[in-house]
Amino acid sequence: ILGLRPAELALDPPPPRPFTSRLNCFSVPECEAGPVRGGTTFGMRGRMNQRALLSTLACAVMWSAGSASAQSFPLFRTVAAPAFTPQASFYNPVRDELVVISFGGTDAQIYDSDGDLVRATAALPTPLGNLVDGAAYDSLSGVALVVRQNCELLELDPVALTISSRRTLGGSALVDPPTLCTGVDVGSDGLLYVADYNSNRVVVYPRLGTTPLRAFPIAVANVDNLSRAPGTDLIMVANNSVGEFALYREAGTLVSGPSPLGTGIILGDHTRTNSAGSDGLTFIGTSGRLWFCDHNDPVVSCYLQTRGCTGAADCPLPFIGCNVATGLC
Length: 329
Fold this sequence. Notes:
This protein is 6% helix and 37% strand. By secondary structure, the chain is mainly beta. The strands form 6 sheets. A 4-stranded antiparallel sheet has the order 3-22-21-20, with no helix packed on it. Strand 4 (86-92) and strand 5 (97-102) form a beta hairpin. The protein starts with 5 loop residues before the first helix and ends in a 24-residue tail after the last strand.
């Protein structure tokens, strides 16, 4: 991906997987309706059919209706981390690629949605700048977003990882500017949601703007991660000091948490040796899984979380059943 020749970069990525009858609430583009243009609804690369649109609505209703205890993500797999400090991640659903970017903005490593290595560490074509601390994939425009701690927002080609634009996020007369940006994602409403570490809040911007529309406080101190669950209005935030995670709606209302990692309702017990240092929080769109890394572990590791279960009733959508042998949805 990072060493492709110009001719290869000109090729279109593979088309999205065809929509099937299997309802997957974290699947993009099946559960991500795009903007309406000329009366036609578009997804990632074309029209979204009626069944896919109904799937989107069902996903949002059923996931948001789930109880707080059902919205939990115990450990699925521990993954060897890159050689660099993993700090920001985004999931590209078109290619089933999870791109993990270094804190220094110079390197990237790529996994698939099962946590298997796709491409080993390679230098970025152009360094992004130091203090990279958050990333996301914008399914409406097909670009990757990266935010640095100085609140500079970069747009990247999600495959070549080349920079197409950059701008600095500011404030307004009613909303103070963020001073240490540590997470970013695009909401179901098409707006930009940015985590501000210093003020314990989420600042909301127009997708292409730099002047905030509003902000809301969160109960997770020193927030250092932010990711939206595809097909929903649910945003997960987390810090890297005590490993607290919480779910919020885009309107700013708390759904569940905050809960410490390993003891709370959001992320279940597992073998992490340190509950601090969480970074790169990312929902994996096609699997209903959650990814993050911990750079404070004695051996830096990354984690895929999913739901634990003893039967099908423990696995609400987006999962399709319970693997009783592993005890995981």
